[in-house]
Design goal:
It contains 8 helices and 6 strands, in the order H-E-H-H-E-H-E-E-H-E-E-H-H-H. The protein is of the alpha+beta class.
Length: about 240
């Protein structure tokens, strides 16, 4: 494990991100960085690819999305326009899809990594992706995500307040004819532009406290009543690694 990629404090994290952004710009690329925070080091696969499905992955994907579209409209804040909108909305509410969550906000990604105590003393991870303009999917020209044949970055319309609050963006993953999804960190197009930052388990609580002081908490990341209630619970109680 490289000490350079270990993050002990929020200040260290910000400095490391600024360095990565500087390196990106010096190389001649002004595209933005993307971030993904994880409580532990797991494969970069969308949820759909991590489940033991009752059938063909593409058929199950379509069935679930169709049922979501049929049943969710009275519950949605905004009316989706196309399948890209529907997929983004479904993803943000927990439906297994071919999308993987990322964010333009380094602090939001770090919060997702440390918001809860570590799992069995596992270190947290923040992935940083140096993007290129060619990485992004033009959803006007390519209107059906279920026929996506190349893994691309997908910028959703704001079909949920959570997408806006989390500065959310997605990778839309290719599913091949055999039903296989390539891990993002193994994808030849992206793997050389990924950086893995490690957040040691013993630093979760102190970094979480620093983020709270900076205004990054459940109520800002989840701008709804559920997020407010979780924020109030955390404000007036302690987690096991904070005692």
């Amino acid at each position: 494990m490289s000490e350079l990629n270990e993050i002990q404090t929020l200040a260290e994290f910000i400095t490391r991100i600024e360095t990565l952004k500087y390196e990106h710009e010096v190389s001649g690329n002004n595209s933005e960085l993307l971030f993904r925070g994880q409580r532990e080091d797991k494969k970069l696969l969308p949820k759909l690819a991590r489940l033991n499905l009752n059938g063909n992955i593409k058929k199950i994907e379509k069935l679930m999305l169709d049922e979501f579209k049929r049943a969710s409209l009275p519950l949605a804040e905004f009316e989706p326009k196309d399948n890209w909108d529907w997929l983004a909305l479904a993803q943000h509410h927990g439906l297994p899809t071919r999308l993987l969550d990322w964010t333009y906000s380094a602090l939001v990604a770090l919060w997702f990594a440390v918001q809860n105590p570590p799992n069995d003393s596992a270190n947290g991870i923040v992935w940083v992706l140096k993007t290129d303009i060619s990485d992004f999917r033009d959803t006007e020209k390519f209107d059906d995500p279920l026929k996506n044949k190349v893994t691309k970055i997908f910028r959703s319309r704001v079909v949920s307040k959570r997408i806006s609050a989390q500065a959310g963006v997605f990778t839309a993953h290719r599913i091949d004819s055999s039903g296989k999804v390539v891990q993002f960190e193994s994808n030849a197009t992206f793997r050389e532009r990924l950086t893995k930052l490690i957040v040691p388990a013993e630093n979760f609580s102190s970094i979480r406290a620093s983020l709270k002081m900076m205004g990054v908490n459940h109520s800002t990341v989840f701008p709804d009543i559920d997020g407010l209630c979780q924020h109030l619970e955390r404000r007036f109680s302690k987690l096991e690694d904070e005692i």
